[in-house]
Write a structure and sequence with these properties.
Layout: E1 21-23, E2 30-32, E3 58-66, E4 69-84, E5 87-98, E6 101-112, E7 118-129, E8 132-134, E9 139-140, E10 147-152, E11 161-163, E12 165-166, E13 174-186, E14 189-201, E15 209-215, E16 219-227, E17 231-240
Antiparallel strand pairs: 1-2, 3-4, 3-17, 4-5, 5-6, 6-7, 7-8, 7-9, 7-10, 10-12, 11-13, 13-14, 14-15, 15-16, 16-17
């Protein structure tokens, strides 16, 4: 790890979204809605945030376990781009398979602003089951009022809480920074006292809470569900094409 109505005018479009605090749920912290301004993206495809670097040609390989079942997940940073709200975004392809059979195939769109924040600009999501394709999780910033959000802050601080995306009823993920000194070990490597730990949740799934661990210079290395159905994803390899 997803919606106001407004008119899209031009590449220099500005969303004047004051940092309004909204309550995700009674047991969750108040979160900030990031303010988007297309003029703040002079080099949007250079995504070098230490906790979320996206270098074209990189493939992150994850092994995921859900309720005892194993899944294979490959996240490929393509060399393709897509312009959204006047900003050129990096296209990342996320493919999940079980036993060699693709079950999910998603194209995610990211851009980094001049401050170092990495923005999540939407996704083209497809899930396959019994020959049926489900695209209900798809959304794009600026379409039907959907808003982008932070996938990673430039300078995370413990307690920060923010929207990662906003399209009512479809994409409403939120995150909070829990620690900048976490430790984590996965097949790809170990980090002691220097990993970023976040909590993520959505009001669309009030009974599910995840925690994610990001290693500096690598990106996300572990995603574990701490409330809800048992699930864990760990980084096993990073390849370059």
């Amino acid at each position: 790890m997803k919606r106001y109505r407004f008119l899209v005018a031009a590449a220099a479009l500005v969303f004047v979204l004051l940092p309004v605090r909204v309550l995700a749920a009674k047991s969750q912290p108040a979160v900030i809605t990031p303010s988007f301004d297309a003029r703040n993206f002079p080099r949007p495809t250079t995504i070098n945030n230490p906790y979320f670097p996206l270098v074209p040609g990189t493939v992150f390989v994850y092994q995921e376990t859900k309720n005892g079942h194993s899944e294979h997940d490959e996240v490929f940073v393509t060399r393709d781009t897509k312009k959204i709200l006047g900003v050129t975004c990096v296209v990342v392809r996320d493919t999940v398979s079980i036993g060699g059979q693709v079950t999910e195939d998603t194209f995610d769109w990211y851009a980094q602003d001049k401050y170092g924040n990495v923005w999540y600009m939407g996704e083209d999501a497809k899930q396959y089951k019994n020959g049926v394709v489900d695209t209900s999780g798809s959304w794009q910033a600026g379409v039907d009022g959907a808003l982008p959000g932070y996938i990673m802050e430039a300078h995370p601080q413990v307690g920060d809480a923010y929207r990662q995306e906003y399209y009512p009823g479809v994409a409403e993920d939120m995150a909070q920074v829990l620690s900048l000194t976490a430790s984590v070990s996965v097949p790809y490597g170990s980090w002691q006292g220097n990993a970023l730990q976040t909590k993520e949740w959505s009001p669309l799934e009030p009974n599910v809470i995840e925690q994610k661990y990001y290693a500096p210079g690598v990106g996300m290395v572990r995603d574990v569900t701490v409330k809800g159905p048992t699930s864990e994803s760990v980084l096993v390899a990073v390849n370059h094409q």
